[in-house]
Amino acid sequence: MLTLAILIPLLASLVLAFVPLGEVASRWTATGAAALSLVALVIVWAGGGDGFRAVAEVPWIPTLGIAWRVGVDGMSLALALMSALIFVAATAWPLKLHDARAYYAWMAFLAGVSIGLFVTLDLIVFYVFFDLSLVGMYFLIGRWGHGDAQHAALKFFVYTLAGSLLILIGIIVLALNMPTLTFDMRAMIDSPPLAAAGMVPGLVFLAFVIGFGIKTPVFPVHTWLPPAHVNAPGPASAILAGVLLKMGTYGLIRIPLQMMPDTFARWALPLAIVGVISILWGSIVAFAQDNLKRRIAYTSVNHMGYTVLGIAVAGSALGSETARQLAMTGAVVEMIAHGLITGALFLIAGAVWQRTGDYHLPNFGGLAGPAPRLTGAATLAAFASLGLPGLAGFVAELHIFLGAFGVYPWLAAIGLLGILITAALFLRMLRQMFFGDLPKERAGFTDLDRTETALLAGVLILVVLIGIWPTWLLSLIDAASLIPTPGAGG
Amino acid sequence: MPIGDLAPELAVLLTAVAVLLLAMVLPQRRHGWCALLAAAGLALSMAFAWAQSDAHRLTFSGTFALDGATTWARFAIPGLTLLCVGLAPRWFATDRRHGEFYAMLLFSTLGAMAMAGAADLMQLVMGVLLSSVTGYVLAAYHRDWAISLEAGMKYFLVGALANALLVIGVVFVMGMAGSTDYRDLAGAIPDNPVALAGLTLVLMGLFFKLGAVPAHTWVPDVAEGAPAPAAAFLTVIPKLAAAVALYRLVALTPETQALPLLVALVAAATMTVGNLCALWQDDVRRLVGWSSISQTGYALMAVAVAGAVPDALPALLAFMSVYGIANLLAFAAIVELRGRTAIADYRGLIRKHPGPAIALTLAFLSFVGIPPLAGFLGKFALFVATLEAGLAWLVVVAVANTILSLFYYLRVIGPAVFSRPEGAMATLGGTARATFWALFALLLATTFLWSPVWSALPRALLP
C-alpha cells in the first residue's frame, strides 16, 4: 500500500512526461495522483497498529544490504499524510503557466519522492529520495520561477547537495559499524551502531546535524532559503516550505536521535542553542523584510527553530521523561502545523503574485475591501502561525515550551521572545496588506475564486481541527515510542 | 603457446588489419563499410571473451593474466569502443582517410586490452605504447584543423615524456627486483629508494593514460580539439585499461605504505584540479574534459585502498564502467549536435532537441552522483570501500569536490533547460543518433542491472 502511494505519483509523472495532455488534463492527472496517494495513506492509517506498520521489503542489492523497504510509524505516517495533502492542494492550485505539462510532471514526481522519503525504511532509499527532491525542486524553481530564478535554483541545489552528501557519509559510517552491513533503519534503531564517546560518533553526528540543518534550515546555514522561496512559483514554495523542510527535521529525529541516542544526548545542548538562535534570528530578520514571501520564508526559519529545540530537548536524556515526550510531541506537531500553515500562507502569496506580480508589502493596503475571502484565509493562517490558542501552531509551541522548560529553562525563556516578535511581524503584515487605504493600482484586485477558496479551506480546517481537538493527531504520533531509551545500545 | 587464450585480442588485431586493407580497396564514399567490419570484429572479440570468461590463470609464460579483471576489460573495452565506432561514420564522411580511422581505433583498442591484461612490466610497456602512439594519431585526425593538431601535439609531448619515464621506471624495478614478471614481483619488490622511485615512475606512465595529476594536461585539449568520436574514445578507453593496470601494480606491494599514500594524494589532487579548472569553462567539450579528470580522481580512491578492503576492486571496475558509459553519452550528445561546444550555444537546447538535452543532464547528474542514476551507485561503492579502509579524509575531499562539480554541471544544464533558444541547431543523425540512444538506454539500464553486475564483478586478482 505504501509502495503504491509512492508509485502512483511517479507513474503519473511518467505519463505526463510522454503523453501530450492539455493543461487542464495535466493538472487533474497530477492532482488525481496525489489524491490517490493520500487515499492509500489514509487506508494505512485506518488499518491502525503500533510501531512500524504496513511494512514491505523487496531486495535490491543484497550484497550491500540495500533493499526497497517501506513502513511507517506514527511520525512518518502523519508527515506523509500532511505531505500528500499539501501536494493535492498545490497541484490543484490554479496557475497561469508556460509548459504546463512539464510543470505538473515535476510536481507529481516531487509528490512521489517526498512521500517516499517519509515512508521508506532503508537509509539508501531514503538518501535517493532526499536527493531526488532536490532535483525536482531545482527544475521547478529554475524553469517556472521569476526574478533571478536560475541563480536561486543553483544556490538551492548546491547548498542542499552539500548537506545530503554529508548525510551520505554519515549513513555509510553507521552501516559499516553494524555487525553485518545493512541499511535497514529498524535494525539500526533497535541496536544503535556507534558508541557515545570518541571522535567518530561525534563527527558522524556533526555531519548529520549540518546535513539536516541545511535542509531544515537552521541558522547559520539557512541562506539558500529566502532566494529559493522568493523566486519560486507559489505552489512550489508551499511544497518547499510545507514538505521539503520537514525532511530535515524528520531526518534529525529518525537518524541521529533514534540511531545514535547516546551521542545525541551528549550534544543536545549545542543543538538546542542552535534551535533558539534560529528562532530569534528567523523572527528578527523576518520582521525587517518588506517582501511578502521573504517575510514568510524567514518565519519558516523561526518555526523550524522551535522544532529543532523540541527535538534537542527530546533527545537530551535530561529532565523528566514527561518533559521529553512533551517536547517530542510538540516537535512533530510543529512539523505538521507548520507544513499546513506555511503551505497555506505561500499559496496565498502565490495568489497575490498571480494578481499583481508584486511582493513588496508597502505597495499593498486595504485589500480587505475587494478580497474578503483572501483576507479571511490570510488572517487565519497568520494567526495560526503566530501561535494563537485554538489553532494548530499553539498546540505545537505549547508542547515544545512545556518540555523545554523542564530541561533547558533558560533557553526556553529566551525562545519565548521569538513568539512575541513573530506575533508582531504577522500583525504588521496583515495591517500593511489588508487594512488602510487601497492604493490606486490595486483597484481591480479580485478575490479568491472558488477552487482557491476550497483548497485553502481544506487546509485551514485541519489547522483549526488540530488546534481545537488535537487528541487524534497526538495519539497517531505516539511520541513516547519515538524516543529511544537512553543507554539501550552501543 | 596457447594461442586461443588471446582470441579476443587477436580478433581485434586481425580486424584492424582487415579494415586497413578494406579501406585501401574501397572508394572513399563507401568507407562506411569499414565501420561495419570494425563493429563486427569488436563483437566477435566480445564473444571470444564470453567463452573464456571463467578462466583464472596466467598465460603466455606468465605475461598475460586471464582473470576477472581482464574479463571485465575484455567486455568493457571492445563494448564501449563499439559505441565509439557508431559515432564516427557521419562525422568522418567527408574525410579522405575515413576508413583508416577505424583501423587506428582498433589498434588503440588492442593496446588498451593488452595493458589491462598485462602481468609483466614489459607487456605493460608494450600495451601503453601501442595505446599511446595510436592515440596521438586519433587526436590529430582532423589534419587541417589547427586545434586538432594542437591537441595531438600536446598529447604526444606529454605522452612521450610519460612513456619515457615509464620505461626508465621499469628498468629501475627490474634492476632492483631482478624480474619483470608480476609473479616474481608480488611482495618481493625491495623496499629501497631506487625500487620505489622506479615504481613511482611506472605509476607516472599510468597516470598519463588515466589523465591524473601531474600528467593530466592533455585531457582538456584532446576533449576540445580531437574529432568528437575520437575524443570520446580517448577520454574513456585508455582510462579503463590504465585503471586495471594501476590496480594490479599497486596490489603487488601490499606491505609498502608509500604507494597507496601516493595514490591517495594524487587522487585528491586530481579531483580538485579537475574541478577547479572546470569551474569557469565556457567550452562544453573542455568542461567535459576537465570533469573527466576529476572523475579519474574519484576512481583513484579505490586504487588507494587496493588490497585493504575486498570491495575495492569491484568498486573501481563498477565506477569506471559507469563513468565510461556516462562520458560516452555526453560526447554522443555533443556529436549528435555536430560538435557544438560553446556553453552559450546550448541555451534553450531542451526546446529544440530534448533528447540530447536530457542526455547531457542525465550524464552530468550521473557524474555528480545523483541517485538513482548509476553514477551514484559507483560513487557509493567507492565511498564505502574508502571509508571501510579508514581513509575518511579522502572521502571528505571527494564530497567537497562533488559539491563543487555540481556547480559547473549546472552552468551547462541551467541555460540548456531554462533559457529560450536562439537560432537553429543542426544535428548529425544517422548511426550517431542510433548510438546516442543506445547509450542513453544503457545508462538508464545500468541502474537496474546494478545488483547482478555488482555480484559478478571480481574480488581478487592474479597473481
From TrEMBL, chain A:
Origin superkingdom: Bacteria
Compartment(s): Endomembrane system; Membrane
Keyword presence, Lipoprotein: no
Keywords, comma-separated and alphabetical: Membrane, Oxidoreductase, Transmembrane, Transmembrane helix
Domain NADH:quinone oxidoreductase/Mrp antiporter transmembrane residues, every copy: 122-422
EC number: 1.6.5.-
GO BP field: ATP synthesis coupled electron transport; electron transport coupled proton transport
TM region positions: 27-47, 77-95, 102-119, 125-144, 156-176, 196-214, 235-255, 267-288, 300-319, 331-353, 374-395, 407-430, 451-472
Entry GO terms, CC: endomembrane system; membrane
Membrane association type: Multi-pass membrane protein
Family to which this protein belongs: Belongs to the complex I subunit 4 family.
Functional summary from the UniProt entry: NDH-1 shuttles electrons from NADH, via FMN and iron-sulfur (Fe-S) centers, to quinones in the respiratory chain. The immediate electron acceptor for the enzyme in this species is believed to be ubiquinone. Couples the redox reaction to proton translocation (for every two electrons transferred, four hydrogen ions are translocated across the cytoplasmic membrane), and thus conserves the redox energy in a proton gradient.
Protein name: NAD(P)H-quinone oxidoreductase chain 4 1
Species of the source: Palleronia abyssalis
Gene this protein is translated from: ndhD1_1
TrEMBL record, chain B:
Compartments, as annotated in UniProt: Cell membrane; Endomembrane system; Membrane
Domain (NADH:quinone oxidoreductase/Mrp antiporter transmembrane): residue spans on this chain: 118-404
Topology with respect to the bilayer: Multi-pass membrane protein
Transmembrane segments: 6-26, 33-51, 71-89, 101-118, 124-141, 153-174, 194-219, 231-252, 258-280, 287-309, 315-337, 358-385, 391-413, 434-457
Reaction(s) catalysed by this chain's protein: a quinone + NADH + 5 H(+)(in) = a quinol + NAD(+) + 4 H(+)(out)
Taxonomy, superkingdom: Bacteria
Predominant location: membrane
GO biological process terms, semicolon-separated: ATP synthesis coupled electron transport
EC numbers for this chain: 7.1.1.-
Top-rank EC class of the record's enzyme: translocase
MF term (GO), any: NADH dehydrogenase (ubiquinone) activity
Task performed by this protein: NDH-1 shuttles electrons from NADH, via FMN and iron-sulfur (Fe-S) centers, to quinones in the respiratory chain. The immediate electron acceptor for the enzyme in this species is believed to be ubiquinone. Couples the redox reaction to proton translocation (for every two electrons transferred, four hydrogen ions are translocated across the cytoplasmic membrane), and thus conserves the redox energy in a proton gradient.
Family: Belongs to the complex I subunit 2 family.
Stated name of the protein: NADH-quinone oxidoreductase subunit N
Source species taxonomy: Bacteria, Pseudomonadati, Pseudomonadota, Alphaproteobacteria, Rhodobacterales
